[in-house]
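_Backbone structure tokens_
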Amino acid sequence: MRALLIDDDPKLHRLLTEYMADRGVHLESAYDGQRGLIALDADTWDVVLLDVMMPGIDGLEVVRRIRTKSAVPVIMLTARGDEADRVVGLELGADDYVPKPFSPRELLARMRAVTRRGHHAVGERLKSGELMADIAARQATWHGKTADLTGLEFDLLVALLRRAGRVVSRDALLAAAGRSDAVVGPRTVDVHISNLRKKLQAAAPKGGSPPIRTVRGIGYVLVEPT
């Protein structure tokens, strides 16, 4: 696994570099947002570890810029405990959130989880009406047009497609997408479903609307075509 750590704490870089190297992870360091963006453009990464609070370009702006051109999994690291700050990162496209202080073991488990989702069996496709997800390619299309989804958005879409026509609770969606331990919990689903709808809407023909419906107080349902 190739990971990029963007954080202004030298001690954290030393700790994680040593820990990850012993466990088969090549960790590269960038000490501020600007250098992190340069490193992102210069190489290919399996996962990005991104601090929120940094001088200059902060982590929220970095993840916003990442999502304009890449779907690489992003795990945000922060000492902030306020849920609103976590939600902002998720709205901008982060895949997971780990609050500081954290154990390197927990972080590695989350890194493996977000990267593992990119390695599914070849050939599986899920389809409902004009909505299709290619599991191997991790690509979703709506009316034949590709929707540029983040890792968690795609996983939630797949979870809904597998249960098309059935109401699925937020907790069940998180579990099905492999995110039952997500820091923000069910609120994560609301944020990403909202983004998922917007991206499908952008790919839809005029007058078309994504078939994902909210079931108040319960969760969501992917409405099958009649």
